[in-house]
Amino acid sequence: MLTDVQLRALKPAKKIYKVADQWGLYAAVTPSGGVSFPVLLPGEGSPGNPGYRPVRSITFRTKATQARRTRIRNGYSLPETRLRRDQAYGAIQRGESLSRAKVEKRVDATETLTFGKWAEKYFMETAPADSTRAMRKLL
């Protein structure tokens, strides 16, 4: 199992290299010194069904290291990554699709009610006031 001390001791090399942690999680060190945490997860679905994937990989990213020490900023630390890995395993065990959830979240964000959509909806559903109707009759 990878510890924080071992994680801090990882030095960049000319090529990306990986150090195993546990349960499909490992640390990948880039030539620039950045660290990401790829995870191998069991596949989704069952054999013979469309969309079946025997093994899949997701990556929890971190920001670049600072001063040759692995200080993780705006990313995930090792314990947080292990927790997220466990959540992903649980989602797969419940039969949820990680990619489908990601797409649905993106679609929901694009379908939010913007001011233009709100104004259009308001004017379509709201009847004009009596003074507005009277003014339109004059035109």
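^ that was protein a. below is b, sequence first then the tokens
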Amino acid sequence: MLKFLLLSLIITGVWYGFRYVNRPRGGQPAPRPEARPDSQPQAPAQMRAEDMTACPVCGTYVAESTARSCGRGDCPYPAA
């Protein structure tokens, strides 16, 4: 019975230790986002997809707008 009591005290101490270490800093609770029932959730910003093309020299796929030279002399893309 003593082992069980000691084990539960250790577990409780570790639990409260983690809670103490991970508490919000500055003494103020973390701000909660205000939920407005009349508003719709906002969609994330739209990202534009971009096609990838294979380099005719080395075969590496690169984005068309940001293609840079692979370092070979006959690479068709501009050097960085």
